[in-house]
Amino acid sequence: MKLNEQSLALDRDRYLIVGLSIVLSVLVAVSLMTGEVSLTLQQLWQALMAGDSSINGLVVVELRLPRTLLALIVGAGLAACGAALQGLLRNPLASPELLGVSSCSALGAVLVLYFGLANLHWMMMPAAGVLGGLIAVVAVLLLSGVASGSLILAGVAINALAGSLLALALYLAPNPFALNEMVLWLMGSLANRSLSDVFFVLPFMTLGFVLLFSCGRLLDAMTLGEETANSLGVAVHRQRLMLIIGVAMIVGAGVSVSGNIAFIGLVVPHLMRPLVAYQPSRLLPVSALSGAALLLAADIASRSIGSQPLQVGVVTTLMGAPFFLYLVVRQRGQAQW
């Protein structure tokens, strides 16, 4: 009976992943065709075949392809981190912003803009973002000692400190141009990115995903409580540390090239959890695919709504804030899992 249930669960996951992959493929094609100059499917194919030897090929390969790839990578990373943190902390309202990694990564990138270092080399912004994320996780670990309760408190404190420093940097902006640049970057955007940005974040993202997906047994065991997980032979302390470092690598790298993009890590796991029978390890890959699809759809919308392109972070916030309020109302008076 148990083997039959496991087999049915695997079949459901397989169908779900295939369905999400089809949706992602369609969104990738739409993303590559959408822009100031819209392309048909045939023109897109010809542009991809021609590479950068034609105008359409240049637009697709140099402008739209990096943007599309980053939407896929960052969206998948944020959603997988949200699913992992909600499972680890057994808190359905946990998100990648909880540990302060997003804010510290944003602070690192904003400081580069503030001091005008972004013009020295294109790697200055992403490198500062990743460094900020790593500093955040080290500070949280030193403050909390990797205990679940202290982890949240330390994350909130680091998040508040980074937020106040960000506000101070904006207040002391050397000129209106720098202020405008910092504010727009903080809103979150995937515009004007290159393949170099993709290649820069890829190693951090890959390592982060490996660490996250290797902690599936920990997440399943944590649904029974930390003591039970220890009694089942799970190395809770070591795997929790691996998971937090994985989150820091993914979120730090993502924020360093896209700015702050909120709510993907909160909304997606909630939408997908019932479809995988509330099992955290099965939620990780499904959330990653769904997060990639959601951020890509939001990026397409940001280019299509209105006469001027919107920042993608504004679109995700407009989608996520009402959903967050719905969750708060629904959770009121209910026991958290």
TrEMBL record:
<feature type="transmembrane region" description="Helical">
    <location>
        <begin position="15"/>
        <end position="35"/>
    </location>
</feature>
<keyword id="KW-1003">Cell membrane</keyword>
<keyword id="KW-0812">Transmembrane</keyword>
<feature type="transmembrane region" description="Helical">
    <location>
        <begin position="241"/>
        <end position="268"/>
    </location>
</feature>
<dbReference type="GO" id="GO:0033214">
    <property type="term" value="P:siderophore-iron import into cell"/>
</dbReference>
<feature type="transmembrane region" description="Helical">
    <location>
        <begin position="198"/>
        <end position="220"/>
    </location>
</feature>
<feature type="transmembrane region" description="Helical">
    <location>
        <begin position="123"/>
        <end position="144"/>
    </location>
</feature>
<feature type="transmembrane region" description="Helical">
    <location>
        <begin position="69"/>
        <end position="89"/>
    </location>
</feature>
<dbReference type="GO" id="GO:0022857">
    <property type="term" value="F:transmembrane transporter activity"/>
</dbReference>
<feature type="transmembrane region" description="Helical">
    <location>
        <begin position="151"/>
        <end position="173"/>
    </location>
</feature>
<dbReference type="GO" id="GO:0005886">
    <property type="term" value="C:plasma membrane"/>
</dbReference>
<keyword id="KW-0813">Transport</keyword>
<dbReference type="InterPro" id="IPR037294">
    <property type="entry name" value="ABC_BtuC-like"/>
</dbReference>
<keyword id="KW-1133">Transmembrane helix</keyword>
<protein>
    <submittedName>
        <fullName>Iron complex transport system permease protein</fullName>
    </submittedName>
</protein>
<dbReference type="InterPro" id="IPR000522">
    <property type="entry name" value="ABC_transptr_permease_BtuC"/>
</dbReference>
<dbReference type="Pfam" id="PF01032">
    <property type="entry name" value="FecCD"/>
</dbReference>
<keyword id="KW-0472">Membrane</keyword>
<feature type="transmembrane region" description="Helical">
    <location>
        <begin position="310"/>
        <end position="329"/>
    </location>
</feature>
<feature type="transmembrane region" description="Helical">
    <location>
        <begin position="98"/>
        <end position="117"/>
    </location>
</feature>
<comment type="similarity">
    <text>Belongs to the binding-protein-dependent transport system permease family. FecCD subfamily.</text>
</comment>
